[in-house]
Specification:
heterodimer; A: two-stranded antiparallel ribbon; two-stranded antiparallel sheet; B: 125 residues; mainly alpha; 2 domains; 78% helix; rod-shaped
Chain lengths: 247, 125
């Protein structure tokens, strides 16, 4: 019997070593690469006809583009334009990684905290640097609440700084935990179905129930996969907006 | 003759088009008044997850920063204890911002300063 968390094991496909660092190509790297290749192929092939009246594939690609473009416009404003390519790439990469993970026998790269935390850390450091470059030392006024009693300001500044450092943690844990929980749940129900079938007799008939649950959960997981890609991207937009406009 | 016919026809078309626009606007108004039913569960789901996580993350990050400071300055467990509670406060503040639609922005806001319009917020202060 397989453990429900066995699906998250990292397997080395071929070993690589760079200056003493283990940079082996793993199943996680493979699915990251697949997400990049498939999303690039999808966008390039969908936009190949460049028709005035889009077909189905082109329509899907244009909807994705407009969805992110509207998100950036609504949350960051026109100053967010230079960052649109990054935000769009981020959204497409997370969406494809999440969706690829739902295919049986595949691997979900976003179910590893390392992957999501690196993504979040890049955003956190990038956004902080943008804020520092745009506003100089004035950026630190971000942590000083205006209109608060003077005696409370030292405490409030510490709280603000902590709440600023919470951002990459909550951003990465949200995506990782949702993926991990969803896939574990699917495997638990799948294991139950297999065990009931193995038990035979009346139990084999009962295995229909966990099977039905898997079908429902797969639908839910698709929603979660799209929703978490959306949440990750919209929070990136909000952090970017904070850095560009302070308050 | 032909021109007259045409203009008449156009007028008819215009008036019926105006009627149809009015009708469409009215039916659209009725539709807008209803809350977008399809969107609510998804937004609620995303919000619920964020609230729970925000509470925990504040404490964890506060505690971790304190632990690092203690290791660096050798003041175990002073900073960890202090920042643990301040982290909890930060988590609660983030939740408050999240549910009041401020989306985890740091700092206080214009609407918070002139909150006199809203009696609830004034009471809270």
């Amino acid at each position: 019997m397989h453990s429900p968390v066995e699906q998250f094991t990292i397997k080395t496909l071929f070993a690589l070593n760079l200056l003493g660092f283990d940079i082996s190509f793993t199943n996680s790297s493979l699915f990251m690469l697949l997400a990049v290749v498939l999303s690039t192929l999808f966008l390039v092939l969908a936009m190949r006809p460049a028709a005035l009246v889009p077909g189905r594939l082109q329509g899907a690609a244009e909807m994705m583009y407009e969805f992110v473009a509207d998100m950036v416009r609504a949350n960051v404003g026109s100053e967010g334009r230079p960052y649109f390519p990054f935000v769009f790439t981020l959204f497409v990469f997370i969406l494809f990684s999440n969706m690829l993970g739902l295919i049986p026998y595949s691997y979900t790269t976003t179910s590893q905290i390392v992957v999501t935390f690196v993504l979040a850390a890049v955003i956190f450091i990038g956004v902080t640097l943008i804020g520092l470059i745009k506003h100089g030392l004035h950026f630190f006024s971000f942590f000083v609440p205006s209109g608060a009693p003077k005696a409370l300001i030292p405490f409030l500044v510490v709280i603000e700084v902590i709440s600023y450092f919470v951002r990459p943690v909550s951003l990465s844990v949200r995506l990782f935990a949702n993926m991990l929980a969803g896939h574990t749940m699917l495997k638990v129900f799948a294991g139950l179905a297999v065990m009931l079938t193995g038990a035979g007799g009346i139990f084999a008939v009962g295995s229909v129930l966990p099977l039905a649950a898997i079908i429902g959960l797969t639908g839910l997981e698709m929603l979660v996969a799209a929703l978490q890609a959306y949440v990750f991207t919209i929070l990136t937009c909000m952090y970017l907006n904070d850095a560009l406009h302070l308050h | 003759m032909i021109l007259g016919d045409n203009s008449n026809h156009r007028q008819d078309g215009n008036s019926s088009l105006a009627d149809r626009i009015k009708q469409a606007e009215q039916s659209a108004k009725g539709r807008v008044d209803k809350p977008p039913a399809g969107h609510m569960p998804v937004a609620g789901l995303a919000l619920a997850g964020r609230v729970a996580l925000e509470l925990v993350a504040g404490v964890v990050v506060g505690g971790f920063l304190g632990w690092m400071l203690d290791r660096w300055l050798g003041t175990t467990p002073g900073f960890m204890l202090g920042l643990f509670f301040l982290g909890a406060a930060a988590g609660m503040m983030n939740v408050w911002r999240l549910v009041t639609g401020r989306n985890m922005k740091a700092g206080y806001f214009e609407e918070h300063r002139d909150a006199d319009k809203d009696p609830d917020e004034k009471g809270n202060r």
